[in-house]
Amino acid sequence: QTLDSFIDSTATVTRADGSTEIMGLTPEQKADFIEGYYNEGKQFGDGLMYTMPLSKSTEVLYYNKSFFDANGIKVPTTWAEMEQVCAQIKAIDPNSIPLGYDSESNWFITMCEQYKSPYTSATAPHDLFDNAQNQAFVKMFRDWYQKGYLTTQKLYGAYTSGLFTSTTDVTSYMSIGSSAGATYQRPAKGSDGQYPFEVGIATIPQVSETNKKVISQGPSLCVFNKSNPQEVVATWLFVKYLTTTVEFQAEFAMASGYVPVLKSVAENEVYADFIDSADGGDYVAALSAKVCLEQQEAYYTSPAFNGSSTARDQVGALIAKCLTLTDDAAIARAFQDAIDECEYNN
């Protein structure tokens, strides 16, 4: 059910120990949420709140810091710089695939956000991703793929973290993947007990510094509308506790690899010590969390509607397919086929 009546309630609740609290959220509690995470609960087209954020992850750019430092390579902050870096890496190691991207769907949707080009809408017509701007960035990445600059999970056949952490045969020097999977982007220690290379983590490249966008993903909580109203109230109070209690948010974030949804967790002494431990080796998960917290103003979510998961699947398959096509007309047909699939399935 919608949560607005709970969030805005000023009713007093008496706990079993006799202490009290208000049913809803105080203005301070609302303001403490990272805005992009909180607003995810409103992405259903009617402006109402359906979910509360529990913990989140995003995508980050993992890079081989040891290799970058040794070769004087600057970490790319834009896609234009990324193309230059891929060319640099290819010149140094011709057998490498400089960049791996784990989620084709996230990639397509994030590029739409960065370019401010249509993807989907919560209201009909829903599927808007077949347009000139989106075809243009897909063709750009197609050209990169043809030059051997990149691969994706579907094309590689596995998570590209395996390519990134490889120290034999073909390897990559950059990987874009989930911030919650940082330990999977770290190579295994050698027989000497040392990591083969240090991992660096940065925000993913952007189209423009004035419109930074990175995806918000991870678990949110909802409340089911049950016949027993007291059961519903109790569920809301539990959701409220999980999402607004700083100590819980800190502990859960450190244990899970996800990041907290409250700004004030950064001031929690235990969590602050965790972030201070960040490095590109044993504490790479802390380094990932640190980057996530630093880019909190850039988070976005996509509209949710009946059929939004189909659109997500279709654009993921679309970009993987188009990277292998040499004919621009075939790319245009692939876009139309993806739209047709969305309309057929919904």
Structure description:
With 346 residues, the chain is α/β, with parallel strands linked by helices. It folds into two domains: 115 residues, no CATH class; 196 residues, Periplasmic binding protein-like II (D-Maltodextrin-Binding Protein, domain 2, 3-Layer(aba) Sandwich). Helix content is 43%, strand content 10%. It has 15 helices and eleven strands. The chain has a five-stranded mixed sheet with strand order 6-5-7-4-8. A two-stranded antiparallel sheet has the order 1-2. The radius of gyration is 22 Å and the shape is globular. The model has no long low-confidence stretch (mean pLDDT 96).
Could you list some keywords that capture this structure?
346 residues; D-Maltodextrin-Binding Protein, domain 2; 2 domains; two-stranded antiparallel sheet; 43% helix; globular
What percent strand?
5-15%
CATH class annotation of the largest domain: Alpha Beta
**Major beta-sheet overview:** 5 strands, mixed
Q: What would you report as the Rg, rounded to the nearest angstrom? A: 22 Å
Oligomer: single chain
Helix content: 40-55%
Average pLDDT rating: 96
Helix vs. strand class: alpha/beta
Strand order of the main beta sheet, please?
Answer: 6-5-7-4-8
Question: How many domains make up the coordinates?
Answer: 2
CATH topology descriptor of the largest domain: D-Maltodextrin-Binding Protein, domain 2
End-to-end Cα distance, whole Å, is 23 Å
CATH architecture of the largest domain: 3-Layer(aba) Sandwich
Succession of helices and strands: HEEHHEEHHEHHEHHEEEEHHHHEHH
Please work out how many helical segments DSSP would assign: 15
Question: Uncertain regions: pLDDT < 50 for 5+ in a row?
Answer: none
CATH superfamily of the largest domain: Periplasmic binding protein-like II
Taken from the alpha-carbon principal axes, the silhouette is globular
- Annotation, overall tally of beta strands: 11
